[in-house]
Task: inverse folding
């Protein structure tokens, strides 16, 4: 049994902050004891990591990634090996990725494919949600079995007609199923039927640049779909988690529902907090780098997102990491924005960008950890194994230097993508050391991980329901 002692740091969880030492035994947290306490004085270990002047925080839980994800005739450019390595560099020690059901095929086939993509390749632990692309009697039956085996959440799309789209009847039926089997419905809430009309009209009028992607995917159509999803969930009696919320009008829908004590949750992503339609308007097709759905919004939406993160109208920050290289992939949409593969890179930078929000006064340190670690773990049935530092938890932990300065850039990032959405952005704070189940994956700024260390984690049910 290997033991590790982390000494001298400020331990931060969603619940508290204290100068404390952390003892790790056999891949798990054995004890956390206040600095200079008798308990801390009794700690002995094979190796000691000095965390003086550093934060000691739980490893990040990124509940929304797409590694090796098929979209628009291509695949996201990070596979499970490169994507989880980049996650580790950024202090994220668990990802929940989306297995995909292909139309006309069983959930089981999709899930098996995703297990095959990930098995033996991950640097950090991973779990799966299931994307439903074909809700029928067989799919509904299979959902029960998936919940039993630890795939406890199901994403549906009100967008992308003809690809991932589910109609309201299919959505209602799947929600009724999760109401019965304890699963959590996740929703991509945009009115895709209306958006497709606007896309066609924009292209016919010669408005083909990336910025039109943002213009046709209107905030009102996100708000409308969010409202509809909430009402369908009410009718079904099921909880609802709305992914990648970007419009202030959609936040209002969530806030109203939560004000009524409905089990409705929402996530946003760093791109909606830091980037805007200004980026989509970058010249020379540069805006293609920022094409994702829901789209980036005008800057005015950001204040509502930050506020909702503070007031708990939004509970989780995930990345929706879905990178496509500019060269050869984003370029598929030159002359037609609707052919630009949707998605942005980000799995490496979530912990840092949210720490920057602490520096900027948008979030407290504990809320940073709550949004990035504890609540995603609770939301998706991983807590307290993941998302906190407490006896018995997996020793997934980050030693974070809150004073270090860094500049985000494609030159230095580890994601397998040829641009950074945050090129040149200065960040205060940096991941120094990362442990996954007690094993170093990043050690004082050097990579120490290995493909295959990461294990599949079956999940329990959502832990935020009364
Ligand atoms: O643009 C995005 N978000 N791509 C990934 C697929 C999705 O809708 O989450
Ligand atoms: Zn099949
Ligand atoms: Zn989506
Ligand atoms: Zn996504």
Result:
């Amino acid at each position: 049994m290997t033991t590790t002692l982390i000494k001298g740091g400020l331990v931060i969880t969603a619940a508290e902050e204290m100068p404390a030492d952390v003892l790790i035994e056999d891949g798990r947290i054995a004890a956390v004891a206040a600095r200079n306490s008798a308990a801390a004085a009794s700690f002995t270990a094979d190796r000691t990591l000095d965390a003086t002047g550093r934060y000691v925080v739980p490893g990040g839980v990124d509940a929304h990634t797409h590694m090796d994800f098929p979209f628009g005739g291509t695949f996201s450019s990070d596979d499970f090996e490169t994507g989880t390595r980049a996650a580790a560099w950024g202090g994220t020690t668990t990802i929940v990725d989306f297995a995909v059901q292909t139309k006309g095929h069983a959930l089981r086939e999709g899930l098996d494919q995703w297990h095959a993509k990930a098995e033996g390749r991950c640097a950090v632990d991973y779990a799966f949600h299931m994307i439903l692309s074909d809700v029928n009697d067989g799919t509904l039956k299979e959902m029960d079995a998936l919940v039993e085996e630890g795939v406890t959440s199901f994403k549906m799309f009100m967008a992308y007609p003809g690809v991932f789209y589910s109609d309201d009847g299919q959505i209602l039926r799947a929600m009724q199923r999760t109401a019965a089997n304890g699963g959590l419905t996740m929703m991509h809430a945009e009115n895709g039927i209306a958006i497709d009309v606007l896309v066609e009209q924009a292209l016919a009028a010669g408005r083909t640049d990336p910025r039109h992607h943002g213009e046709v995917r209107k905030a009102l159509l996100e708000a409308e779909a969010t409202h509809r999803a909430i009402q369908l969930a009410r009718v079904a009696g099921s909880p609802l988690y709305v992914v990648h919320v970007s419009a202030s009008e959609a936040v209002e829908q969530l806030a109203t529902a939560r004000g009524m004590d409905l089990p409705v949750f929402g996530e946003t992503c760093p791109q909606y907090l830091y980037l805007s339609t200004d980026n989509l308007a970058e010249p020379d097709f540069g805006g293609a780098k920022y094409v994702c759905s829901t789209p980036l919004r005008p800057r005015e939406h950001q204040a509502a997102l930050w506020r909702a993160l503070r007031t708990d109208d939004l509970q989780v920050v995930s990345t929706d990491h879905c990178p496509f290289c500019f060269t050869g992939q984003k370029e598929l949409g030159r002359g037609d924005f609707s052919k630009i593969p949707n998605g942005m890179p980000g799995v490496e930078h979530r912990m840092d960008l949210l720490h920057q929000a602490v520096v900027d006064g948008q979030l407290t340190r504990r809320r940073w950890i709550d949004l990035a670690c504890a609540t995603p773990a609770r939301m998706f049935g991983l807590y307290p194994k993941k998302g906190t530092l407490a006896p018995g938890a997996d020793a997934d932990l980050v030693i974070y230097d809150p004073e270090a300065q860094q500049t985000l850039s494609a030159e230095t990032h580890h994601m397998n993508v040829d641009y950074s959405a945050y090129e040149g952005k200065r960040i205060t704070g940096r991941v120094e050391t990362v442990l996954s189940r007690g094993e170093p994956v990043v050690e004082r700024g050097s990579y120490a991980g290995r493909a295959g260390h990461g294990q599949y984690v079956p999940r329990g049910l959502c832990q935020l329901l009364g």
Notes: Residues 59-379 form a domain with the TIM Barrel fold (CATH 3.20.20.140). The two ends are 39 Å apart (CA to CA). Residues 188, 243-244 surround zinc ion (ligand 3) (CB under 6 Å). The chain has 14 helices and 19 strands.
